[in-house]
């Protein structure tokens, strides 16, 4: 773990903020309250400390994505009232982005049910792009059911382009099922992005337009 590399294995020697985020990562509500009380030297209150304590650009709600345990989300969102759409200051990932990166569907569902923006972007990257790139079929399926934009473009293209290039046939299939015209749009998108790459077309076009190539790698 990063904190062990930075501070060693003896957690008692870690900065309290690091121990606080580890507790959030582990879903330990009792421990984050304990550390928040320890940090509250000016008497602002535990809730304020839980909300405002950060370490390496992340707060407790970002760190919770690592473990994806619902009790910590319920505490932070429903009791502490933390902002479900606030990005971290390290990489500008929101709480739901962190949950997606770790593949925690229940956490993703919880955050969207409690106000997280389905259509948020990190630059041009959507939540659907993130789920596709990591190969999380169930999260992709869930986001599509919620109305995620299957045509959204990032610097690397549409979610279907990502799934095709990474050879995730089940994700390609469900993306196609959600929009019958996606394959045509994919062709147009690729033409605009890589008009001069003959090798690109030689390698990829057979995969796109052959049922065996697309679904039977």
Secondary structure topology:
Elements: H1 2-7, H2 16-26, H3 29-39, H4 46-52, H5 60-67, H6 70-79, H7 95-101, H8 105-113, E1 121-122, E2 125-126, H9 127-133, H10 137-146, H11 159-165, H12 169-178, H13 182-193, H14 198-209, H15 211-215
Antiparallel strand pairs: 1-2
ANK repeats: 91-123, 123-155
Keywords: ANK repeat
- How much helicity do the residues have? 55-70%
CATH architecture of the largest domain: Alpha Horseshoe
Coarse shape: elongated
- In what order do the strands lie side by side in the largest sheet? 1-2
- CATH C-level category of the largest domain: Mainly Alpha
Describe the main β-sheet briefly: 2 strands, antiparallel
Number of strands: 2
pLDDT averaged residue by residue: 85
Strand content: under 5%
Order of helices and strands: HHHHHHHHEEHHHHHHH
The number of domains = 2
CATH fold call of the largest domain: Serine Threonine Protein Phosphatase 5, Tetratricopeptide repeat
Supply the CATH superfamily name of the largest domain.
Answer: Ankyrin repeat-containing domain
The DSSP helix count reads 15
Helical/strand content category: mainly alpha
First-to-last CA distance: 35 Å
Low-confidence stretches: 194-203, 209-217
Rg over CA atoms, rounded to whole Å, is 21 Å
How would you explain this protein's 3D organization?
- This protein has 15 helices and two strands.
- The protein is mainly α and 217 residues long.
- A two-stranded antiparallel sheet has the order 1-2.
- Strand 1 and strand 2 (125-126) form a beta hairpin.
- Helix 3 (29-39) crosses helix 4 and helix 11 packs antiparallel against helix 12.
- It is elongated, with a radius of gyration of 21 Å.
- The model is unreliable at 194-203 and 209-217 (pLDDT under 50).
């Amino acid at each position: 773990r990063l904190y062990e590399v930075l501070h060693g294995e003896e957690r008692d020697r870690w900065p309290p903020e690091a121990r606080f985020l580890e507790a959030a990562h582990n879903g330990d509500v009792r421990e984050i309250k304990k550390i928040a009380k320890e940090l509250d030297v000016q008497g602002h209150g535990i809730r304020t400390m839980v909300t405002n304590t950060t370490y390496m650009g992340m707060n407790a709600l970002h760190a919770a994505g690592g473990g994806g345990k619902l009790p910590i989300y319920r505490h932070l969102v429903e009791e502490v009232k933390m902002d479900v759409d606030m990005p971290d200051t390290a990489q500008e990932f929101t709480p739901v982005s962190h949950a997606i990166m770790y593949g925690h569907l229940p956490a993703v569902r919880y955050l969207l049910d409690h106000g997280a923006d389905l259509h948020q972007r990190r630059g041009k990257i959507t939540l659907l792009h993130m789920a596709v790139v990591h190969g999380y079929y169930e999260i992709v399926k869930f986001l599509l059911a919620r109305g995620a934009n299957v045509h959204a473009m990032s610097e690397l293209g549409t979610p279907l382009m990502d799934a095709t290039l990474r050879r995730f046939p089940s994700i390609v299939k469900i993306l196609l099922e959600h929009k019958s015209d996606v394959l045509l749009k994919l062709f147009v998108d690729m033409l605009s992005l890589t008009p001069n790459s003959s090798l690109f077309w030689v390698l990829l076009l057979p995969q796109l337009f052959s049922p065996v190539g697309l679904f039977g790698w």
